[in-house]
Amino acid sequence: MELIVKHSDGEMKVKIERRGGEFNVQIGDQSYVILSAEAMSGVRSLLVAGEQFEVAVRSLGEDRYEVTSSGGVETVQVQDPLTALAEAAHAGEEDGQRRRVDANMPGKVTAVMVEEGAEVTAGQGIVVLEAMKMENEIQAERDGVISKIHVEAGQAVEGGDPLFELE
Amino acid sequence: MAERHKPFDKVLIANRGEIAVRILRALRELGKRSAVIYSDPDRAALPVLLADEAYRIGGAPSTESYLRAEAIVELAREIGADAIHPGYGFLAENADFAQRCADGGVKFIGPPPSAMAAMGSKIESRRLMRNAGVPVVPGGDDPLPSQEEAAAFAEEIGYPVMIKASAGGGGKGMRRVESPAELSAAYRAARSEAAASFGDDAVYLEKFVERPRHVEIQILADEHGNVVSLGERECSLQRRHQKVVEEAPSPVVGPDLRQRMGEAAVKAAQAVGYSNAGTVEFLLDADGNFYFLEMNTRLQVEHPITELVTGVDIVRSQIGIAEGEPLDERLAAIEPRGHAIEVRLYAEDPWRGFAPSPGKIVRLRLPEGPGVRNDCGVYEGGEVTIHYDPMIAKLIAYGADREEAMDRLGRALAELRVDGIRTTAPLFQALLADEDFRAGRLDNDMLDRKLAAGELSLTPPPHLRKLAIMTAALEHLERGGRKAAEAKLQGQRDHWREAGRRDSLRGSGWN
User: Do B460 and A57 touch (CB under 8 A)?
Assistant: First the structure.
């Protein structure tokens, strides 16, 4: 099976095949033979040439996975090459257009710092979200216009709820 | 002196999380009945599961639950609790609450309200300590209305000095002055900044303590006038004034300094008529001078490291003291044995500026084995909510010496798994790899300084990305296989369901 795996700063071509109890995985130009065993739901022991890695994997929707191992966590997206291609074309169309910013955690909106229609610059604070006694300023990631604000001060939000739209 | 109370049969814990669990353990060991309060989101939290009795105290916000002083005392009376243990945070240092307990005939497991009030005011406690002969940072709280007076006073206490706003806080109106030449500009700047920030331009002067360490003394005081020191804890590693790593003993405190600091702490406690467990915090400079900072009139988060190096159960002692028991005379001669290090596990994401990381803990494996203690307030499958302090557990490593304690802490962190939320564990792994930490070269700004300079390697190991790609590819491949099988099964189910629906419709006579 051929796949495109996207990570935080790029993407890799990956080939994976099952051979008996083993998996052959090719990442870029490197090949690995892997033994995998499920320790419990969502937790695997991987043996890569005898070296043991305990990994936990959590599905974040259709094709995204969060993988945790000793010392870190990495989120990757796995797609078949056709889907990846179609998405790339679509993303091209949307460039420079509207982008919705969602709450990355549950919390309470303590302040909305701009009004709809405001012109903002990259790094400018838009909404302040409070969780666990700490305030987090959600900023504009680039210059643009705030076309829509979905929240008001005092409102509780869940992770994934839309906060504002930047055009 | 205080009368002897009858031993408590039942104690109400006015707290949540790991400290409620810690207190529950002491109560069970003593054969006492335990009761806890809970807010709505804590209905099935770990303390509730471990307690003998549990009572709802209100909604999620602490102002509607764990801070409801009157309701908590009322509850204690209703359920026949003899005493209330406040833990730390919430109402633990609230003198009015302690007074309310006394008025309600429920014993508050902590110091008398008068001692709490005296230590609760920064200026008042400083004055009391100076009078009692406890060293405080040289300087004065008295405003210095002219530059000439400021210069004369700075000369008297010696440079460098710090100019501070009387109404101040948050670093506003604060100026560090290295030499007489800098004084006049700094004095004017501090006054105008103080006026702009607080509407009050009064400033005072204090000696600037260079690269200070935070070293605190744990004391125990009974209700018969006996006070002992259980030695020091070094808590210099702080992120934004929040302690994150503590150890006992301090790498720089020897028997002589320990004794002098212990004596100062005992004096501090006696000066306010203190009883029960308390902690006197000091700033310690590079030359071994120490200065009173404040007294925490409660059980500290980091009490376990003292328990490990002294063998004294501090929570059990607190209960005994509150029941009127005198302190064991042997405590006065106690010396630390071995070394203990505690790290505070916060539900924060070290890769995203320590942003809160609430959510469901889908997996939790706590380390075990030699020299490891966990004081944990959550369980696997439980939810870390946004309503309370993000500390979910404390991990404590004990060894024969500092080196062994660090090795065990590293090993324990390698065993630890918390999935579903992010924690500060990677920060501690990075610290254990840091030369200055390993050598015990600590000061209060060290952690913020190193984090700002990118000196602590929080970067995930280089093989992690490849591992993630492999794992996700494997998962995707197997999920593809499962999906095909499920789709087939779902087709069959739909078929059965449709057939069943037709049957039931027929049976109900609708046809």
Answer: no
Q: How many residues does chain B have?
A: 511
Residues 6 or more apart in contact with residue B188 via CB below 8 angstroms: B147
Identical fold between B138-207 and B344-431: no
Q: Are B264 and B134 in contact (CB under 8 A)?
A: yes
Nearest-Cα residue of chain A relative to residue B388: A132
CATH class of B138-207: alpha beta
- Strands B213-221 and A51-59, how do they pair? unpaired
Residues of A in contact with B410 (CB under 8 A): none
The answer to whether B362 faces chain A, any CB pair under 8 Å, is: yes
Contact A16 B414 (CB under 8 A): no
Domain ranges of chain B: 10-109, 138-207, 344-431, 465-511
pLDDT digits (tens, 9 = 90+) for B102-123: 999 999 999 999 999 999 887 7
Which ranges in chain A are annotated with CATH 2.40.50.100?
99-166
Contact B470 A46 (CB under 8 A): yes
Question: Where does A99-166 sit in CATH, by number?
Answer: 2.40.50.100
The residue assigned the tokens 């429920």 is B106
Domain B10-109 belongs in CATH node 3.40.50.20: yes
Region(s) of chain A under CATH 3.30.700.30: 2-84
Within 10 A of B145 (CB to CB), how many other CB atoms are there? 12
Instruction: Give the model confidence (pLDDT) of B162-200 as tens digits.
Output: 998 887 666 677 888 999 999 999 999 889 888 888 888
Distance CA B118, CA B100 (A): 17
Tokens of B145: 């209305």
Does domain B344-431 fall into CATH 3.90.600?
Answer: yes
Residue B266: band (very low, low, confident or very high) from pLDDT cuts 50, 70, 90: very high
Which segments of chain A does DSSP mark as H helices, in order? 81-94
Fold held by A2-84: Glycoprotein, Type 4 Pilin (3.30.700)
Environment class of residue B116 by beta-carbon count within 10 Å: exposed (0-12), middle (13-18) or buried (19+)?
buried
Residue B81: predicted pLDDT: 98
Interface test with A, best of B386, B415, B457, B459 (most A CBs within 10 A): B386
